[in-house]
C-alpha cells in the first residue's frame, strides 16, 4: 500500500467496517446530486464527504446570508453574499482529499437540468425548503428513474422519505396541505386576527404602494366569481383607483410644497378614507364590530382615543384576551379615556424587536418606513417586495399591521412577532438538521444496496421518549398523477419539430410490442395548458418552440378514453454530434407503452365535462398566445383531477397569494406557518 492509500484506508476504516467493503468501495464511484446547500444541505454534504461518496454535484440558487451562519457550518462571515454551493463545496472538499465536488450556483428548475442530466446520477438527495422545487425534483427523478431521498425540518420536527419509482410512494403520492389562505374580503375588509392584518400589510398594502403597478382587478374579479359580496367588491375597486394618487406622490421627486406628506397621504387613504368607505356599508357591520377610522394628527399629538372595547387589545403592550372589539367609536369624539397613543414607556427597556408598539409608535414607524421605501423607489429600485431580512419592509409591515389592528380592535404584535408570522418563520434548529442529515445517508445506503425492504420513512418528533419513528414505505398511490404516468424522452430541435410530429411519433403504429400504442384520441398538455385535443388540432403544425415547449419541459399525452395511462414526454436536445442536416427529432426506442388503466370501480360521482363538449375558438394565425387549459386532465378518472393537474389554487398558493377559501375561515396564528 502506498502512503496515500494507507492514509485513505485509515480514514475510511470505520466506514468500511460499518458499510461493508462492497458498498464502501462503490461509494467512491457513486454519483450524487445534492440539491440545496442550506441548513440540511451543509450537514448532509459534510456527512457524505466523510462517508466516502466520491462524486458529488451540489446545487443551490442562493447566496450566503448572515442569518445562515448560526447553523450552516460550512460558511463563515467572510463568505456572506457568496454562492452557497461554491463556498460549501470549497469548505467540504478539504474534509476528504478523495472527493470531487462540482458546485452549481443555479436553480434546479432551469431547463438544462433535463431528464438526461438527472439520469447521470445514481442518487439524488433533496435538502430544499419549498414545495415547488421539491415537486420538481420528484418529477425529474420519476422521469429519469433515479432514487431520491427527500427531507425536511421544521423546528424540532423533521422527516426523511426515500423515494423509488414503482416501489415507494413519490413525494406527490400524498397531497400536501397547501399553505393556509384567507378569503380576500377577510383580508381586505373584515380582519379579525393579527395575522389577517399582517397578511394585508405584506401581501396587499406593500405591493400596492411599492410593488409592480399592476391592476389588481383580477383578484377582485375572481372574488366576485366566488360569490363574495358585490357591493364590498365595488368599494374595493374604488380603493384601487385611489391608490394611484398615493403611488404617484411616493414616487414624486418634486420638492414637497404644501399639504400632507406622501406618507401621510398613504396613511389617510388606507387608515381613514378606506375605513370610512367600509363603514358606509351598514350591512357589513350588523354582525361584526365596525372598525374605527384613524386620525393622523390626533395620533401624532397624543389626543387620539380608541374606544376601550375595541382597543383593549394590546396596543399598550399588554396581552389581551379580546380579539374582536365590539362597536368602536371614533375615539376623537368618544368619551373613553383609555388613550394608548403615547410612546410605551413600560416596554422601553425591552429589546427593540420585542417591544410592543403604542399607536403613536406605529404611526412614527409607518411614516419613517414609508419614507425609507419611497426614497429607495425614487433612487431607482423598481419594485420592493417583502423580505423578512429587509428592515425597511419589515418595519413597514409591522407598522401598517399594527395600525390596522388598532382600527379593528385586534391585538397588536411586536416587530419580532410580525417577522415570524410574515416571514413564515419556524426557528431552524441545527440539531434537527444534523439528525435528519444523518438519516438521509442511512436511507440512501438502503437505496444503493437495493435493500428495499429496509427502506423507512423516518420522523423526528417532539416526544422525548420516542424521538424517532419509522414507518415502512408504501407502494405508490395508484391515483398519483406524477409517478403513475409513463415517462419517456424525445431529443429534438424545438424550432424544427411540430407538436403533431411528436405526438404521432410517440403513439407510433402500435403494430409491434415496441411500436407504441398506435393512433388514439388524445389530449396534449404542457403544464396546465391544453395544446390539442381530439376536437382541436390547430397547434399540431406549430413548432414546439412557437408553443414554448422547449428543453426541460414535458408534453403530457392523455388518452381521451381513459383506457391507457398518461405518457409524459420530456423534451431533450439533440446530441452534440448530431449532423446539422440530420433529423430534427429522435424518438425513444422502444416507444412508450402506457399500462391499461383499471376501470373506475364506482360510477364517477363528480360531474366532469364531457370530453369534447366545448370547442374553443381557434387562435388567430398570427397570435402567439397559446390557449389556456380548457379543463383539467382527468386520465379518465374524474376523481383524479386534483392530483393530476396542479390546480390554479396550488399555483397561486405557491406564489404566496391570497385565495378565496370558505367565507369564514378562522385561523390561529400558528396555522399560517407553512411547514416545509
Ligand atoms: N429551486 C431551487 N434550486 C436550487 N436551490 C434551491 C431551490 N429552492 C431552494 N433552494 C435552496 O435550498 C436551501 C434550503 O435551505 P434552508 O431551508 O436552510 O434555507 P435557507 O434559505 O438557507 O434558510 P432561511 O430560509 O431560514 O433563511 C436554500 O439554500 C435554498 O437556496
Ligand atoms: Zn406518486
UniProtKB/TrEMBL annotation:
Zn(2+) binds at residues 170, 173, 480, 483. One of its GO terms (cellular component) is SUMO activating enzyme complex. Residues 334-349, 602-615 have a biased composition (Low complexity). The keyword Thylakoid does not apply. Residues 17-481 form the THIF-type NAD/FAD binding fold domain. Pfam families: ThiF, UBA_E1_SCCH. PANTHER family: SUMO-ACTIVATING ENZYME SUBUNIT 2 (PTHR10953:SF5), UBIQUITIN-ACTIVATING ENZYME E1 (PTHR10953). Heterodimer. This is Ubiquitin-activating enzyme E1-like.
Amino acid at each position: 500500500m502506498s502512503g496515500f492509500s494507507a492514509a485513505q484506508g485509515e480514514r475510511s476504516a470505520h466506514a468500511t467496517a460499518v458499510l461493508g467493503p462492497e458498498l464502501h468501495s462503490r461509494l467512491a464511484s457513486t454519483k450524487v446530486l445534492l440539491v440545496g446547500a442550506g441548513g440540511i444541505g451543509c450537514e448532509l454534504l459534510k456527512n457524505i464527504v466523510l462517508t466516502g461518496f466520491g462524486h458529488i454535484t451540489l446545487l443551490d440558487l442562493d447566496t450566503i446570508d448572515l442569518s445562515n451562519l448560526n447553523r450552516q457550518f460550512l460558511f463563515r462571515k467572510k463568505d456572506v453574499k457568496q454562492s452557497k454551493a461554491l463556498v460549501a463545496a470549497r469548505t467540504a472538499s478539504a474534509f476528504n482529499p478523495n472527493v470531487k465536488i462540482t458546485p452549481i450556483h443555479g436553480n434546479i428548475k432551469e431547463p438544462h437540468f433535463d431528464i438526461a442530466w438527472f439520469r447521470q446520477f445514481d442518487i439524488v438527495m433533496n435538502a430544499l425548503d419549498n414545495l415547488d422545487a421539491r415537486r420538481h425534483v420528484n418529477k425529474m427523478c420519476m422521469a429519469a428513474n433515479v432514487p431520491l431521498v427527500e427531507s425536511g425540518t421544521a423546528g424540532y420536527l423533521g422527516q426523511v422519505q426515500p423515494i423509488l419509482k414503482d416501489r415507494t410512494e413519490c413525494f406527490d403520492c400524498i397531497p400536501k396541505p397547501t399553505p393556509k389562505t384567507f378569503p380576500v374580503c377577510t383580508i381586505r375588509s373584515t380582519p379579525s386576527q393579527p395575522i389577517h392584518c399582517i397578511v394585508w400589510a405584506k401581501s396587499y398594502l406593500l405591493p400596492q404602494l411599492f410593488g409592480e403597478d399592476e391592476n389588481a382587478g383580477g383578484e377582485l374579479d375572481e372574488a366576485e366569481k366566488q360569490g363574495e359580496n358585490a357591493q364590498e367588491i365595488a368599494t374595493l375597486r374604488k380603493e384601487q383607483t385611489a391608490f394611484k394618487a398615493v403611488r404617484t406622490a411616493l414616487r414624486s421627486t418634486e420638492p414637497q410644497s404644501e399639504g400632507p406628506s406622501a406618507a401621510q397621504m398613504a396613511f389617510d387613504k388606507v387608515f381613514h378614507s378606506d375605513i370610512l368607505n367600509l363603514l358606509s356599508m351598514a350591512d357589513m357591520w350588523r354582525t361584526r364590530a365596525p372598525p374605527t377610522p384613524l386620525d393622523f394628527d390626533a395620533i401624532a399629538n397624543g389626543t387620539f382615543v380608541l374606544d376601550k372595547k375595541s382597543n383593549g387589545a394590546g396596543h399598550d403592550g399588554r396581552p389581551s384576551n379580546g380579539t374582536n372589539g365590539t362597536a368602536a367609536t371614533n375615539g376623537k369624539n368618544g368619551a373613553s379615556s383609555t388613550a394608548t397613543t403615547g410612546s410605551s414607556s413600560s416596554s422601553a427597556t425591552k429589546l427593540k424587536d420585542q417591544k410592543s408598539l403604542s399607536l403613536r409608535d406605529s404611526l412614527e414607524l409607518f411614516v419613517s418606513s414609508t419614507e425609507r421605501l419611497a426614497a429607495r423607489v425614487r433612487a431607482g429600485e423598481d419594485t420592493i417586495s417583502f423580505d423578512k431580512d429587509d428592515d425597511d419592509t419589515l418595519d413597514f409591515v409591522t407598522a401598517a399591521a399594527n395600525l390596522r389592528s388598532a382600527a379593528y380592535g385586534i391585538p397588536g404584535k411586536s416587530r419580532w412577532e410580525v417577522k415570524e408570522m410574515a416571514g413564515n418563520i419556524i426557528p431552524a434548529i441545527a440539531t434537527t438538521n444534523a439528525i435528519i442529515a444523518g438519516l438521509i445517508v442511512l436511507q440512501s445506503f438502503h437505496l444503493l444496496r437495493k435493500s428495499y425492504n429496509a427502506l423507512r420513512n423516518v420522523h423526528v418528533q417532539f416526544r422525548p421518549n420516542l424521538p424517532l419513528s419509522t414507518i415502512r414505505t408504501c407502494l405508490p398511490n395508484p391515483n398519483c398523477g406524477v409517478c403513475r404516468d409513463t415517462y419517456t424522452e424525445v431529443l429534438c430541435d424545438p424550432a424544427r419539430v411540430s407538436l403533431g410530429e411528436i405526438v404521432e411519433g410517440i403513439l407510433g403504429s402500435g403494430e409491434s410490442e415496441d411500436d407504441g400504442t398506435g393512433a388514439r384520441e388524445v389530449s396534449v398538455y404542457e403544464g396546465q395548458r391544453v395544446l390539442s385535443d381530439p376536437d382541436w388540432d390547430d397547434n399540431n403544425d406549430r413548432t414546439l418552440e412557437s408553443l414554448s415547449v422547449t428543453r426541460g419541459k414535458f408534453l403530457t399525452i392523455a388518452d381521451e378514453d381513459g383506457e391507457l395511462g398518461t405518457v409524459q414526454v420530456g423534451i431533450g436536445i439533440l446530441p452534440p454530434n448530431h449532423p446539422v442536416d440530420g433529423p430534427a427529432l429522435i424518438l425513444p426506442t422502444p416507444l412508450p407503452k402506457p399500462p391499461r388503466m383499471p376501470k373506475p370501480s364506482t360510477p364517477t360521482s363528480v360531474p366532469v365535462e364531457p370530453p369534447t363538449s366545448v370547442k374553443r375558438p381557434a387562435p388567430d394565425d398570427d397570435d402567439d398566445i397559446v390557449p389556456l387549459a380548457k379543463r383539467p386532465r382527468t386520465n379518465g378518472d374524474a376523481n383524479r383531477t386534483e392530483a393530476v393537474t396542479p390546480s390554479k389554487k396550488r399555483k397561486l398558493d405557491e406564489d404566496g397569494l391570497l385565495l378565496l377559501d370558505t367565507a369564514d375561515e378562522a385561523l390561529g396564528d400558528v396555522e399560517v406557518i407553512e411547514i416545509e
